Amino acid sequence: MDALISAAKHIQHYYLTGALKGNLGLAGQLNIQGEDVLRMDQIAQEITLHYLRASGRVIHAVSEEADEIIQLNPEGRYFVYFDPLDGSSNVPHGLPVGFLFGIAKRNLEGPEDGRLRAGKDYIAAGMFVIPTGTFTLALKEAGTWRFHIDETMNFVKPTRMILPEDPSSWELSFNAANAYAYSEAIQRWIVQNEKKYAFRYLGALAADFHRVLANGGLFMYPAIVNHPDPKKNRPEGKLRLMYEGAVVAFMCREAGGDAVDETGAPILEVQPKKIHQRTALYVGSKPLVQDIARILRG
Ligand code: AFP
Fold first, then answer.
1. Taking CB atoms and a 6 Å cutoff, what residues make up the pocket around ligand 1?
2. Contact 96, 272 (CB under 8 A)
């Protein structure tokens, strides 16, 4: 955890000062000094790997930014699955991005085969919303907690997050511009429910889920199945299972909520077959997720 917290603080520093240094551009651009601009997500990746490697505690890591599993220390105790800078379309604007992670522990009872873990086998999952200085951490069977950064750059004052039962604060969060391409069943659900709740969408999973966790409601990124150009359909969903879907599903479960995929199956039960596996995602207050799950199961 210390390694991840140090990495997040370091990334936050770069992000806050990045606009001044011209670091918030795209790779391949030049800044005003004519130097190559390193993409923020590449910087975030390097920072995170530095701290994970230095900790000596991590056997291997899976990152959004790497094609293969990153082998670190075979003698380590943990597996870390992370996306150090999620929501990159917000970067040029200096708006919130996420650093999402899930942690699993090696088998301590026998040989360890290094297999990819499903969300139900994570021991912790969390997210930093950068550069807001908020950190949400869920520990297995110990709840979901939100911290705020103080003037000494420490994450302090944990508050337990429990999804509110009263629907008056609930929000819906999804990319409304895609709704025409969702399945007919999900389109019908939206028409029946959208007027009951407020609608919010920032385009960065950590920031959008941060709100849903506090206010209740539903974040969804459904499968795209009705695009007029069938090549643009995403029947498997857009978000990544190991370091997006399972991470928020884990935090949500510990806060009393639920999460399912496009088949209505619990996200935490899905066994990843490959590191960058995609998933559709419906996550948030139990009554809404279970209502959707019933529809998805048909
Ligand atoms: P990027 O990191 O590629 O911008 O994707 C962010 C993300 O994976 C997730 O954080 C958002 O919830 C989702 O994609 C937003 O996707 P749309 O831009 O299609 O709404």
1. 86-89, 175, 203-205, 208, 221, 238-239
2. no
